[in-house]
Amino acid sequence: MAFSFFHLLCHITIIFYEVHAANEHHSRHASKPESKSNIKALFVFGDSYVDTGNWRKSVGGSWKEPYGITFPGRPSGRFSDGRVLTDYIASYLGTRTPTAYQWRKGVKRSNLKYGMNFAYGGTGVLDTLVSQPNMTTQIDYFQRLVQEEVYQKQDLDDSMALVSVAGNDYAAYLARNGDDLQKLPAFTKTIMKQLGINLERIQGVGVKRIAVTLIEPMGCIPLQAASSSYKNCSEVFNLGSKFHNQMLKQTLQNLNQKSNSTVFVTLDLYNAFIAALNKLRKRASGSLGMKNPLKPCCEGKEKGKYYCGSVDGSGAKQYSICENPNLSLFWDAVHPSQNGWHTIFSSLRSSLHKLIT
């Protein structure tokens, strides 16, 4: 269980970063529809890796400069310089990025047919350290819209759900329990049990195709790679990611056996991140990329005090940005850049193809 403890430490660092965040190269990055999919709507649940603008502008760090400088050229509520995983999956399916839930009343009803994004950065399966809707509440929002007939049976038949949620629950556990790990196995079972219930709820509402992301290699995010001057990933933290992913795979396997179908498919972010890192390292060795792919493009001038987007009392910027974000893997200390997500997504196409054909 030693590496599970380090896994928790990794996640608590992430969630504190996201709490802080809360207080066009379009043609190159947009994926062309590559499948003959009949999916017309995408419903999204989870955290900052898939959130496209659900934090309120008044409190969300993702709504402040320099977020969004690559796309759409201004902050859009995404935790990146541009597009995130949701955008690439929607584009692959040949549909539009779904409307963020908080903006549902401000768009034309015709735009809602493309689905809806209920994800909020910093959230988890259970309550975390941010006062935003957890996964259960996100599904409540979804179910209410179906009951109100915003979405009907045909819409759900032609839809897919994307779920990206996990580590913030462990971060909250560690924050509340210190280094007491005796109850951790029981807590992990609680997480998986509730996640299973939540996924079955999405299925029960009428969605027949559900993609669930595995956790990325936590030892490779800049917060952890910083200890090696961004030269190497922490293998200890990566073991923690593998441990969680094994449990999640078993949970999804059980759900598929229960329904005697293949409703649930994993999107292997772990190996997709590793593949992207190796690809960008190769480019860097040929002087075609950032010298150090593990180094974030945007970072605070004083580690631990300032972050990407920080300003001081006089409004002066206390962060720096790399020369070309389109060569980076990571945008800030936690989140991939648009280029990072573009490269990561290329490894996920086969899993999506299996789900939608």
TrEMBL record:
Q: Which UniProt keywords apply?
A: Hydrolase, Lipid degradation, Lipid metabolism, Signal
Signal peptide start-end: 1-21
* UniProt entry tagged with the keyword rRNA processing: no
Q: Which InterPro entries does the record associate with it?
A: GDSL (IPR001087), SGNH_hydro_sf (IPR036514)
Q: Is Lipid metabolism there in the keyword field? A: yes
Question: What family does the Swiss-Prot or TrEMBL record give for this protein?
Answer: Belongs to the 'GDSL' lipolytic enzyme family.
Record's protein name: GDSL esterase/lipase At5g03610-like
Q: Write the lineage as a comma-separated list.
A: Eukaryota, Viridiplantae, Streptophyta, Embryophyta, Tracheophyta
